[in-house]
Amino acid sequence: MGLLLTLGLWGCAAAPTAETPAAAARPVDVLVVRRGWHVDIGFAAADLAPPLAQMLADFPGARYLVFGFGDRRYLLRHGGGSAALAALWPGAGLILVTGLSASPAAAFGPSHVINVPVTQSQARDAQRFIWHSIRKTDGSLEVLAPGPYEGSRYFDATERYHAFNTCNTWVARTLSEAGLAVRPAGVLLAGQVWRQARRLPGATVSAHDLPH
């Protein structure tokens, strides 16, 4: 997927420090990433709050984590053919988590990333939704399988994937859980999420944008 160069150059993570009141009040960027027909959502590692922050243990040195929802049959068979058709029917879901050393804009292209500024509270609400979307084993995270490229991992999802709960629906729901003006109802396609995210207050994207 053209990410190996950026995914393979992880540096060392700095030790966390106590936040000052000013740091706690600063806005956080939610990153909406478009990859063709698929949309992911991400955060800088420094902006991850507990309990989701514990995922960094599986991605040492990552500066960003990007999260996506998908169909287990399609993803583990690497897509195509009958697996693509099967994704239209209800089935087990997966969460793909990718650790990046470079920014998502550098990894995916600046025109494929929207930065949406939110409050700390809104970021925690979005992250809480993501956390509850990942199935735990005895309360602990468990990697289900390696992801499709270096620096990525599959985790079991608590939700089922189907034609009305796609990767794009899931991102729209995550943004909605953060109190943002995004309507998940009727969202099936990447462009539906992208257009809503672009209209959010303060949202920024490269001048070389994707088609609407």
List the helices and strands and how they pair.
Blueprint: H1 4-7, H2 21-25, E1 28-35, E2 38-44, E3 64-71, H3 72-76, H4 81-86, E4 91-100, H5 104-108, E5 113-118, H6 120-132, E6 143-146, E7 152-161, H7 167-177, H8 190-198
Antiparallel strand pairs: 1-2, 1-5, 2-3, 3-4, 4-7, 6-7
Helix pairs in contact: 6-7, 7-8
Mean pLDDT: 82
Sheet of most strands? 7 strands, antiparallel
What is the straight-line distance between the termini? 23 Å
What structural class do the secondary elements suggest?
Answer: alpha+beta
- The strand order across the widest sheet is 5-1-2-3-4-7-6
How many strand segments?
Answer: 7
Overall structural domain count: 1
Shape descriptor: globular
- Calculate Rg over CA atoms: 16 Å
Give the uncertain stretches in residue-range form: 1-23, 79-87, 208-212
What's the total helix number? 8
* Helical residue percent band: 25-40%
Q: How much β-strand is present in the residues?
A: 25-35%
What is the H-and-E element order? Answer: HHEEEHHEHEHEEHH
Features:
single chain, disordered C terminus, 27% helix
Could you characterize what this model shows?
- This protein has 212 residues and is of the alpha+beta class.
- The chain has one domain.
- It is built from eight helices and seven strands, in the order H-H-E-E-E-H-H-E-H-E-H-E-E-H-H.
- Strands 5-1-2-3-4-7-6 form a seven-stranded antiparallel beta sheet.
- A hairpin with a 2-residue loop joins strand 1 and strand 2.
- Helix 6 crosses helix 7 and helix 7 runs parallel beside helix 8.
- The longest helix has 13 residues.
- The N terminus and C terminus are likely disordered.
